[in-house]
Design goal:
The chain is mainly beta. Helices cover 4% and strands 39% of the residues. It has 5 domains: 343 residues, Single-stranded right-handed beta-helix, Pectin lyase-like (Pectate Lyase C-like, 3 Solenoid), CATH 2.160.20; 93 residues, Immunoglobulin-like (Sandwich); 108 residues, Immunoglobulins (Immunoglobulin-like, Sandwich), CATH 2.60.40; 204 residues, Jelly Rolls (Sandwich), CATH 2.60.120; 74 residues, Macroglobulin (MG2) domain (Immunoglobulin-like, Sandwich). Pfam families: Pectinesterase, Por_Secre_tail.
């Protein structure tokens, strides 16, 4: 144990002489790569492309320090390429592709094509180079993929998360000498033979909060004598929240038959393991179908960092503890056969002193009460290295030391510090400097912690339409501000008004200011309406501004017309509390119709379901399965809306009339869940055979619906508690039905709950509203015979009507209930309507004298 760490700490004249020798031989390399243009090429791939084919001796490419973001491939036709970096910490080949990421060439990257570097040419070697994939903990994102035989690395780093190094080809030979490899899941995996000597294998603390991981995932093929062998390697402790097993058997699971099942082989010889990083059981199976009898998972004298043999009494019973005699089977010659990397590449196999290399420098921004946290680790543990964190208020400004620490030993690799979060509107910049006399100093990348003044908005506006004298319907967006140093000023264009409470309205000359509390404007519903004093077109930008923040502008347009906007009355109403029939008392110039399901069924009302199919509390209750399950495995549509799962309604005009239908009201939610509980509505004039359109938004429980969740199929309403929604079929214009047309609309639902019961979409009081020229009376309202003013009204209105000996005025709610009956004075031509007791909303006022019937709509404010 002492010899292991003494070797790593040995730095002196011999190492300095080696550096001088490398510099002296720089001119002996075939080509030089330098980002600054001082070499033959500026990219590594360009140098590889220019290299000859069919070599039988190494062709050396020297790479000067720099970060090279490129995808590097060594083709099979170019053997014996050798990449030599100026320094392992200074030469970085980096990429950020991952499994599922869109590929500019078409489609998406797979796990294998995500690799930053792919080696397909045999007899390849690399020295003093960092290969990395910066994707993070997951998904699969390779730093290195090896498909060739006889590939060797010395003093290299491999940085990644899931699947860092992939040795892709069965029985091919790979040699890693004095390297550093890190990751989180299966970060050394594949079917090749791999010998790792004197390497640091660092299982990182997972940033995604995961508590476990796997170091290797060998899928060694049958009849292959060796898989992975690790000789005298070091597994340092991480930060303590993620523990690992030494390997799991890829290709040995329930999906594999014995004919194609992997015979996984991983052996750790004389490994030093830090505290609390490897789980006591040591190894993992893949699943219940794993055949452990064909696995060779073995250790020989694993020790802790004090040199004591580890307690391996809790290792899985099918793993092996090797004897001294067993180790003769795992020599370099036995594993690699006729290939000797030590002979092919001079000075390749003797151990060398490690270099300083800072890895995984990360920052997590704090809050006003929690400091920002900075962490990093050393690739190779070296005693006496000084680590300094520097900070500056500008990226290229003057940096001053924030924190200094010195590595007390050659065991610990993890370091950390904190700093107060910047003030609002301020950015701070940090880097780490690692140094020790006699070694090359390494500077990390620079990280930025910011609290920029930021204004955010969610939603967009549909065109506004106003009837002169009355404001338009309100629309809403969400606004918020973060790290503000002053209030958020919201200025509408001319003709428009804004409000944060629906009561007090602000204009372009007197804008709204939302004050910042603790530098924050919490998410606020901003209501906007068109309320111009003259007819015309009104367009412009709604601006949101605050000191130091980038101003946000939202485009807005609308029309103010001289004529009042059309008023709507109830056309059809489905209460859904006892059955699915519509109300004959409310039906206005339309035929009776009942809705139908596609792939939804009513609740069966069982004790398991817990919800009746129809009730006053829930209305109609339905789901893909009668007991309330939405699971895709049980035939449901789960958390995703599906065009084949819906309830369909129809509005069919009678008597060959033309009808305008503008809005839909309904009350809905999903019982027992808010997991991906979505509602979307689409409509058609042809029964969805030739046309289809989404509703265009409307109102919900907190005001107008945002454009991001307005009931469209791609922007569904996110259902929470039982709430009422009013949706516009086609903006302010509505849908006009010609005599031969009918309106068909479909309600689509989804639910992501994993429960197998008691999750039902519920629906009640489905109301369709349309133009006021279609009424339940025998005649249309005539302006010269019946007039209602003021309208809209607050408390009291006057109805002008024909004189009669006996006449009555009845007021109906939007749902068709009679809410007031007033007897007219005999012979009078006007009747006063006292409306204080009525709630705000739309009503139908109907006058009758027994012979004549007239109606008008009323808006109560």
């Amino acid at each position: 144990m002492k010899h292991f760490f003494t070797l790593w700490q040995h730095v002196g004249a011999t190492w300095l002489l080696m550096l001088v020798t490398l510099a002296a031989h720089a001119q002996s390399y075939e080509v030089v790569v330098a980002k600054d243009g001082t070499g033959n090429f500026t990219t590594v791939q360009a140098a590889i492309n220019a290299a000859p084919t069919g070599r039988t001796t190494p062709y050396t490419i020297y790479i000067k320090n720099g970060k090279y973001k490129e995808k590097v491939t060594v083709p099979a036709t170019k053997p014996f390429l050798q990449l030599i970096g100026q320094s392992v910490a200074g030469v970085v080949l980096t990429g950020d592709d991952y499994n599922g990421k869109p590929n500019p060439a078409g489609g998406t990257f797979s796990a294998t094509t995500s690799a930053t570097v792919t080696i397909s040419g045999p007899d390849f070697s690399a020295l003093n180079i960092t290969f990395e994939n910066t994707t993070g903990d997951s998904p699969q994102a390779l730093a290195m993929r090896i498909t060739a035989d006889r590939v060797a690395f010395k003093n290299c780093r491999f940085l990644g998360g899931q699947d860092t190094v992939y040795t892709n080809t069965n029985n091919a030979r790979n040699y890693f000498k004095d390297c550093y490899i890190d990751g989180t899941v299966d970060f050394i995996y594949g079917g090749a033979r791999g010998l790792f000597e004197g390497c640091v294998i660092y299982p990182k603390t997972r940033r995604d909060g995961g508590s476990g991981g796997y170091i290797t995932a060998a899928n060694t093929p049958q009849n292959q004598a060796y898989g992975y062998v690790f000789r005298k390697c070091y597994i340092p402790a991480n930060r303590g929240t993620t523990t690992y097993t030494l390997g799991r058997p890829w290709g040995n699971d329930a999906s594999n038959t014995n004919a194609n099942r992997a015979h996984n082989k991983v052996v750790w010889l004389s490994t030093v393991i830090g505290p609390n990083v490897v789980k006591p059981e040591g190894w993992s199976s893949w699943d219940a179908g794993t055949n452990t009898s064909v696995i060779t998972y073995a250790e020989y004298k694993s020790r802790d960092t004090n040199g004591n043999l580890l307690d391996v009494s809790q290792r899985v019973p099918w793993s092996i503890q090797l004897t001294d005699a067993d180790t003769a089977t795992y020599t370099r010659a036995a594993m690699l056969g006729t290939w000797d990397p030590c002979a092919v590449y001079p000075n390749f196999c003797p151990s060398k002193a490690p270099e300083i290399a800072i890895t995984n420098f990360m920052a997590v921004k704090g809050t006003s009460t929690t400091p920002s946290a900075f962490t990093w680790n050393a690739s190779w543990p070296i005693a006496g290295v000084q680590y300094q964190v520097f900070r500056s208020a500008t990226r290229n400004g003057a940096y001053t030391p924030l924190y200094t620490t010195t590595a007390a030993n050659a065991i610990d690799v993890n370091f950390a510090t904190t700093d107060a979060v910047p003030a609002a509107g301020v950015s701070l910049f940090y880097y780490v400097r690692a140094s020790k006399a006699g070694l090359l100093t390494h500077l990390s990348d620079t990280l930025q912690i910011s609290r920029p003044t930021t204004i955010t908005t969610t939603g967009a506006f549909q065109p506004f339409l106003q009837g002169l004298g009355q404001p338009s319907t309100q629309q809403s967006v969400l606004v918020a501000g973060e790290n503000l140093t002053a209030g958020l000023v919201i200025t509408p264009p001319a003709g428009y008004q804004v409000s944060n409470n629906g009561t007090t309205w602000y204009t372009t000359t007197a804008p709204l200011t939302l004050p910042a509390t603790d530098n924050t404007v919490a998410s606020t519903i901003l209501r906007v309406r068109l309320n111009a004093s003259a007819t015309g077109t009104y367009s412009g930008n709604l601006t949101l501004a605050s000191t130091g923040a980038t101003t946000i502008t939202l485009s807005i347009n609308g029309i103010t017309q001289a004529a009042p906007l059309p008023q709507s009355g109830v056309v059809q109403w489905w209460p859904m509390t006892r059955n699915n029939q519509d109300s004959s008392a409310v039906r206005a110039a339309v035929q009776a119709s009942t809705p139908t399901f596609r792939k939804f069924v009513l609740s069966n009302g069982s004790a398991t379901a817990g919800v009746p199919p129809y009730s006053a509390q829930y209305g109609q209750a339905f789901a893909p399965l009668a007991e309330g399950s939405w699971l895709t495995s049980a035939g449901g549509n789960g958390s995703n809306l599906n065009r084949t799962y819906y309830e369909q309604f129809q509005v069919v005009p009678t008597g060959g009339i033309t009808m305008r239908v503008d809005s839909l009201l309904l009350t809905s939610y999903v019982t027992g869940s808010t997991s991906s509980t979505k509602l979307a509505v689409a409509w058609s004039r042809t029964g969805f055979s030739a046309d289809s359109a989404d509703v265009s938004g409307g109102w919900g429980p907190t005001g107008s619906l945002l454009s991001t969740a307005n009931g469209g199929f791609a922007t569904p309403i996110l259902l929470g508690s039982q709430s009422t929604y009013r949706l516009a079929f086609a903006g302010t214009s509505g849908v006009t039905l010609q005599p031969d047309q009918r309106l068909t609309f479909r309600l689509y639902y989804s639910c992501g709950s994993g429960s197998t019961s008691a999750r039902f979409a519920t629906l009640r009081n489905v109301v369709v509203k349309g133009g006021t020229t279609i009424i339940t009376a025998t005649r249309s309202a005539t302006a010269t015979l019946v007039q209602l003013y003021p309208n809209p009204v607050t408390n009291q209105a006057t109805l002008v009507h024909p004189a009669a000996a006996h006449s009555i005025v009845r007021i109906y709610s939007a749902l068709g209930q009679c809410v007031a009956t007033i007897a007219c004075t005999a012979g009078s031509q006007q009747t006063t309507l006292h409306l204080q007791a009525l709630a705000s909303g739309h009503y139908l006022v109907r006058y009758t004298d027994g012979k004549q019937h007239f109606s008008a709509t009323l808006q109560k404010q």
